[in-house]
Each structure stands twice: as C-alpha cells, then as structure tokens.
Amino acid sequence: MDEKKHINQAVIISDLHCGCQMGLCPPTPITLDGGGTYNSSDLQKKVWLWWREFWDSWVPVVTRGEPYIVVLAGDTTEGRHHNSVTQISQNLADQRNIAIEILSPIIDKIGNGKLYMIRGTESHVGASGENEEMLAQALNAVPDDIGNYARNGLWMQLGGENGMLVHVLHHIGTSSSTAYETSALMREYNESLVESARWQLKPPQIVVRAHRHRFSEIKIPTAWGDGICVTTPCWQLPTSFTYKIAGGRNSLPQFGGILCRMGDEEGYTRHWVKGITRTPTVMA
User: Which residue in 45, 168, 178, 226 has its CB near the most CB atoms, within 10 A?
Assistant: First the structure.
C-alpha cells in the first residue's frame, strides 16, 4: 500500500461522563425515558462551548485538513456508582442516548472506520465495560480482533509500517500531590520499555492514559525521537467525590483533548486544555 494513504494522526479524548449533571451535555433540552426533560446548567453550557471550540476550531487546524482517527479513551458515560445522586438519569439508556447525541456529529465528520473506543472504569461503564460496549456498537466503532467494539486497550500504528506506535489505555496511577503528578507517567513509560525489551517487541513512542481528568506529559530522549507519556484532560466538572481527594480538592478542572501525529521527521503530541476559574471570592 502507498505509504501516503496511511492515516498519520489521532485525536484522543476521554472522561465525558455523559449522564452526569457535571458531565458533558448538549445545551438543548434532553428528553428522558419517562418523557421528561433535562436542561443543562450554566457551567455545562460553558463546557459545551469549549467542546464546540475544540472540534470546530482547534481540531481542523492541528489536523491540517488531513484524515484522522478519533479515540475515546474511556468513561464516556457516568453510570450508576458509589450511591451517587448526581446523575441526570439513573437509566443507562438515557445516558447512552446523551452520548450518542453528542458523538454522532463528530463521527459523521470523520467517516466510518476511524473511531476506536477504550473501556473505562467499571464503576462508570459497567462490569467488563458492558455499557461502553453497547455504546461503541451504536456508534459503529472499529471492533477488535475478537469482535468487541470497545476494547481494553489499543495499539495504534500511525503513518504506516515505518510510522509511530501509540498505546492507549484508560487507567493510570494517581498522586495526592501535584509535586509528584508526573511520577506515574515516568513509571508507565519505563514499564512499557522494559516489557517491550523483555519480549523483543517494538516499544511505543507515545503512551496515552486517561482517568485522572488532568493533562500532564513527560518526554524523554530515545533513539527514535521523544518518548512520550501523556494523560488526557476530561469533559466533566468536579463532583462531590473530587473534593474528598487530596490534590483533587485543590485542583481546578481541566477540559480538552490531545493530538498524536507522525510528522515528516518525528512523532509528537499537541494538546488543547481549558480550565474553569475559582468560585467567586466572598468579601468579609
């Protein structure tokens, strides 16, 4: 096959948490299973404007009008979990329908055969990612070698046989201190190198993880260019669980996504990240 026909870039997003009052939601009323409706909050409307800016302005520029793959790296829906009460609806069909409404226009733009879905946290997407599997089928994601539409992980070669190997999973370790935010990323990349060498496999140039709801990135020099490990930002406002976590309770939410691209000379990443400011200060 002509090398020029290979896709050399992927847009990766994660943690939409559709179906949560803090998750990504369209600004138009959402019709629920019982016939009622849900109207998004002012903050959800703000995040939605960023969602549109990301896809309508940033993605076309960084992809240069060339074909690209979209990877959803887990936790696309909120699910029923931890006795939480912040769901728009506890009905998982409602949550799935919200995700379909949000993602279908994106998929229409890129065409069939270019969407890959990763299974996220079981508390959000069901045991063995069953809810995300049903969503992936509805969105016509590319199935894996055993026919599952949502996969646990993705090995992706961008740019053809001589291109760049990227590994995408949802989970990665976290830290209670932002001073050590990149420690897990360095461990993750080094473990990828060790396992690749152990079994004489090609190591990934870029390791992508999600789950944290925060963008972070490390780069180390390698024989094939920068070795990169990156975590994706999210599309969910803080929930009550966030305020219980050391580090998380002091962190402002981060929204956006990343691009992985095999360029003319080397592979690289780009990122688009936005953050909501602090709550208003009360004057004593």
Answer: 168
Q: Which residue range(s) make up the domain with 69?
A: 3-272
Residue 284 included in any domain: no
Tokens of 77: 């829906």
Return the structure tokens found at 142: 């590319």
Please name every residue paired with 166 in a beta bridge, in sequence order, or none if there are none: 156, 206
Residue 68 maps to which CATH number?
3.60.21.10
The reply to whether 282 falls in a domain is no
The one-digit pLDDT tens for each residue of the chain (284 residues) are: 344 578 999 999 999 999 999 999 999 999 999 999 999 999 999 999 999 999 999 999 999 999 999 999 999 999 898 888 889 999 999 999 999 999 999 999 887 669 999 999 988 888 889 999 999 999 999 999 999 999 999 999 999 888 999 999 999 987 767 778 899 999 999 999 999 999 999 999 999 999 989 999 999 999 888 999 999 999 998 877 676 665 666 777 799 999 999 988 889 999 999 988 878 889 98
Lookup: tokens for 274 = 């936005």
Backbone angles phi, psi at 262, to 5 degrees: -90, 105
pTM of the model: 0.93
